[in-house]
Amino acid sequence: MSKKRGPIDFPLFITILILLSIGVVMVFSASMVEDYKIYNDTYYHLKKQILWAFLGIFAMMFMANFDYRKLRNKKILVFGMLITIALLIIVLFMPARKGATRWIGIGGASIQPSELAKMMLIIYLSDNIVRKGEKIKSFTKGVLPVLIIASFFALLIILEPNMSTTVIIMAVAFSLLFVGGAKIQQLAGIVLLGVAVAAVGIIIEPYRMRRLTGFIDPFKDPLDTGYQAIQSLYALGSGGLFGMGLGQSRQKWHYIPEAQNDFIFSIICEELGYIGALFVIILFVVLVWRGLKIAVTSRDKFGTLVAAGITSLMAVQSSINFLVVASFMPVTGVPLPLISYGGSSLVFTMALLGILLNISRYTVKNGVE
């Protein structure tokens, strides 16, 4: 394959920047009340989000100019995997925050190893599937080894505990197997097994069962398990067609806890209305569409798989967030990519999108042979 590069996918690039800009504005709007109360600084989360946004842009531009094919280098893969596994183990011994051990404090900042795990798993499994070739059609030689690797990461993450990220990681692994050429019958069996495992995971953890029952009938326990779902629905209902106006949300006044995080889309619906919410959803649809197009037109299978993995991650994570906010799924801690407040989450998401932009430079459209 030639090392000649074409231009990046401009529609994808613009879509990413628009979503990032909306995220910065909405983080400020959603957090200003709590920030004034807790930190006596209305701009507390805004200043941090702007910093993370600039770091994310740097990570995106670096990866957009770093030949993605070099990620298959054995030293890079092994080093990245070892660092990721080490961080996933270390985080289990960190002090609990909000009932879970998901963050490692570094100075005044913190990092979520699970975010690095998403990136490394996509890259490593893509390389692994390419090397297997036609063996991927065999369950024992192709599918099973991939599942073992993904399940090992999932096990470390669910111990935090973080079931939502575990589900996302397994969904991405499934999408990579599908694009890589695994048999549909085998994948169908995996889905059924995954549903059974998820059901067991819910049953054995009382707090997950409470979330499930709270989802089925949130008004049965409006002050506990159904609280966030109900407040989110109030936000959606209050927004109407055109919204209450930017900065005019009522639910951010101590009703939705930490509105700048997982339920930021509720604030978008309330302040910008269904029109604003639809605009954000359309932007994610464009992002997924361009990602799939890059995957289809990539000149090598590794590029196709990595692009498909990144795109499926964006699609699954954003879909779960939308469904949770609208009470079509039990409440779970899944941030909205590029929109929700977050440090490592935003930076690693931008880095992944940078890789996607880099792959777009080596496509049929750009005439790279």
UniProtKB/TrEMBL annotation:
The molecular function terms in GO held by this entry are: lipid-linked peptidoglycan transporter activity; peptidoglycan glycosyltransferase activity
One BP term from GO: cell wall organization
Q: Where in the cell is it found?
A: Cell membrane
Entry keywords, A to Z? Cell cycle, Cell division, Cell membrane, Cell shape, Cell wall biogenesis/degradation, Glycosyltransferase, Membrane, Peptidoglycan synthesis, Transferase, Transmembrane, Transmembrane helix
UniProt cross-references to InterPro entries, sorted A to Z: FtsW, FtsW/RodA
Main localization, broad class: membrane
Example GO CC term: the record gives: plasma membrane
* EC id: 2.4.99.28
Q: Which regions span the lipid bilayer?
A: 12-30, 50-69, 76-96, 102-126, 138-157, 163-180, 187-204, 272-292, 304-326, 338-359
Membrane topology according to the record: Multi-pass membrane protein
Q: In which pathway does it act?
A: Cell wall biogenesis; peptidoglycan biosynthesis
Q: What does this protein do?
A: Peptidoglycan polymerase that is essential for cell division.
Q: NCBIfam families given for it?
A: ftsW
Family classification: Belongs to the SEDS family. FtsW subfamily.
Q: What is this protein called?
A: Probable peptidoglycan glycosyltransferase FtsW
